[in-house]
Amino acid sequence: MEHKPIELGYSYDALEPFIDSKTMQIHYEKHHAGYANKLNTALVGHEELQAKSVVELLKNLNAVSEEIREAVKNNAGGVENHNLFFSILKKDVLFNPGSDIGREIISKFNSFEDFKNEFTKAATTLFGSGWAWLVLDGNELKIIQTKDQDSPINRNMAPLLGLDVWEHAYYLKHQNRRAEYVDAFWNVINWKKVNELFLQAKS
Ligand code: MN3
User: Fold this and answer.
1) 188 in helix, strand or coil?
2) In the prediction, which pLDDT does 1 show?
3) Beta partners for 136?
4) pLDDT computed for residue 112 by the predictor
5) Distance, CA 101 to ligand 1 centroid (Å)?
6) What's the pLDDT score for residue 179?
7) How far is the CA of 1 from the centre of ligand 1 (A)?
8) Is residue 163 within 8 Å of 85, Cβ to Cβ?
9) Across the strands, what pairs with 133?
10) From the CA of 52, how far away is ligand 1's center (Å)?
11) 59-66 contact pairs (CB < 8 A, 24+)
12) How remote is the CA of residue 138 from the centroid of ligand 1, in Å?
C-alpha cells in the first residue's frame, strides 16, 4: 500500500487562534507528508512489508530487515504519531468528567487539574524533539514521553492523546516558547475522539 497522511477533516484555520493556519499547513503538507513519502521510499523492494499498515510495521519492527529498520521506525512512527495527533484536534469540545475516559483520568490522576499538570510537565520538560502522550498500557493510563518519532505502539502501548513538541509544531507562532504552545493545546483537544480511542483500546 502507499502510505499517506490521514485526511484532516477540517481546514487549516479551524484551530485558530490556538494553533495557527500557517503552522497547520506546513506541518500537514510538508512534515506529515514527508514521513509518508520517506516510508514509501524505504519500503521499495520490500514487497512483504508493503501490504502492512503503519501500526503493523511498528508493532513488529523485528520483522523489518535491519538495513531499513531505522528508517521504518522513524517514518512509520512519524506517520502514525501525526495521524493520531491531527485526529484528536478540535475546538470547543470540553473535557467531560462523566465520560469513560473522564472517569478513568480522574480515578488515576485524582483530578483533571492534576492530570493536566502532569501532562504539561511531560511536554515541557522533554529535551529536544519528541512527544508527550497519554497512553493505555495494559489496563493502566500512563503519561509518557517519546523521543524523535518513537511511537508508544513500539512499546505495545495504545496512544490516546499525543502532543507533538518538535519545534516545527510551534516555532512559527511561539518561537522558542514551548510552554505557551502546550498551554494553547488544552483548548483544541477533541475529548470525544480521545474517549473513542480509549474505548477501542480497552476492547
Ligand atoms: Mn510534527
Assistant:
1) coil
2) 78
3) 141, 158
4) 98
5) 25
6) 96
7) 23
8) yes
9) 144, 162
10) 23
11) 59/153, 59/154, 59/156, 61/154
12) 27
For residue 165, which of 152, 153, 147, 151 has the smallest C-alpha distance?
147
Q: Cα–Cα distance between 80 and 1 in angstroms, integer?
A: 15
- C-alpha–C-alpha distance, residues 161 and 132, integer Å: 8
DSSP string, 9-72: -S-GGGGTTTS-HHHHHHIIIIIIHHHHHHHHHHTTT-HHHHTS-HHHHHHTGGGS-HHHHHHH
* End-to-end CA separation in angstroms for the chain: 27
Residues 6 or more apart from 135 whose CB is under 8 A from it? Answer: 141, 142, 143, 144, 152, 157, 158, 159, 160
Do residues 59 and 73 touch, judged by C-beta distance below 8 A? no
Q: Separation of 157 CA from ligand 1 center, angstroms? A: 20
Ligand 1 centroid–CA 79 distance in Å is 9
> Residue 82 has what pLDDT?
98
Question: What is the sign, positive or negative, of the torsion defined by CA atoms of 112, 114, 120, 122?
Answer: negative
**Could you list the mean pLDDT of each consecutive 10-residue stretch along the chain, which spans 203 residues?**
92 98 98 97 94 95 95 98 98 97 98 98 97 98 98 96 97 95 98 98 94
